[in-house]
Design brief:
Order of helices and strands: HHEEHHHHHHEEHEEEEH
Strand order of the largest sheet: 1-2
Helix content: 40-55%
Number of strands: 8
Structural class: mainly alpha
Distance between the termini: 39 Å
Strand content: 5-15%
Radius of gyration: 23 Å
Number of helices: 10
Shape: elongated
Largest sheet: 2 strands, antiparallel
Length: about 270
């Protein structure tokens, strides 16, 4: 395996390798010409990027290390740390890219994203909606989770599951407050019953109002279900007055991704 192949694969490589150094030098020379041109000269970069469409635009002030593994999706350069993404909220999209990379080389992931988007119209719509949800998200940690969910499907070119689509929609209006309470509820306050796993009233939960607010948020977003006719059940001759909140299938998907996000972001 060459040093270049090692770098693309996301493993340790020697940045002083002559082939890598030559590619970096070529990239710097093209970017110098592009960033110092009086008129926009995006066409200069067409030979630098791995893939482009027929029409694309890049603002001056753009920088990258090598460029040949960057794909231009829908006329927009997919890159991190450049001015082009500032209009779409660089901070949030940067967190999505952190989740998307999830231990891999980012340029490799972006190349996989290009293939995923172009594999079918349905997948292109899913990714477009996900980026829109990222920009609309209220919590930066949500953006990391979006990236993780997307990363799970890039190599296999699989579509999002029904549960993942529900989770993605729910996360758009989630706050850090919701996610932390949800995680605590899922890990400490579920009780198996004949009708599924029910959330029980916690005796040691710091704030009952916060508990019920989070449960209501979960019901609204189809993470939990509310069965008001099933409040309480007989256990050893005693009526156990638990809640009427039950875990729905998307709940475990959300919890798994919150825990996975802790590796990218210290989720506490």
């Amino acid at each position: 395996m060459t040093e270049w192949e090692k770098m693309i694969s996301g493993v340790l490589y020697d940045p002083t390798d002559p082939a890598i150094a030559a590619r970096a030098r070529h990239c710097r020379e093209l970017l110098y010409d592009f960033n110092h041109s009086r008129e926009n000269a995006s066409s200069l970069l067409s030979g630098l990027f791995g893939r482009t469409g027929d029409h694309f635009f890049v603002e001056t002030g753009f920088h990258c290390d090598y460029g040949c593994n960057i794909s231009v999706v829908a006329g927009i350069v997919g890159g991190i740390g450049n001015d082009l993404l500032s209009e779409y909220n660089t901070f949030k999209l940067g967190h999505l890219l952190n989740g998307l990379a999830s231990g891999f080389n980012l340029e490799r992931r972006l190349n996989e994203l290009y293939n995923y988007v172009n594999s079918s119209p349905e997948k292109a719509i899913i990714v477009a909606n996900l980026f829109k949800q990222t920009v609309n998200a209220e919590c930066p940690k949500v953006c990391v989770i979006y990236g993780l969910i997307l990363a799970n499907h890039l190599e296999t070119l699989t579509e999002f599951t029904h549960e993942e689509l529900i989770v993605c929609k729910a996360l758009e209006n989630a706050t850090d407050y919701d996610l932390k309470n949800f995680k605590e509820i899922m890990e400490n306050y579920l009780k198996p019953t004949s009708n599924g796993r029910r959330i029980v009233f916690p005796k040691d939960f710091a704030d009952i109002a916060a508990f019920t607010t989070t449960c209501d948020w979960c019901v609204y977003n189809r993470i939990f279900v509310s069965r008001t006719a099933e409040w309480g059940e007989m256990e050893e001759g005693i009526l156990d007055m638990s809640t009427y909140y039950y875990e729905a299938n998307p709940a475990s998907v959300l919890l798994d991704n919150i825990n996975a996000a802790r590796q990218t972001w210290n989720y506490g």
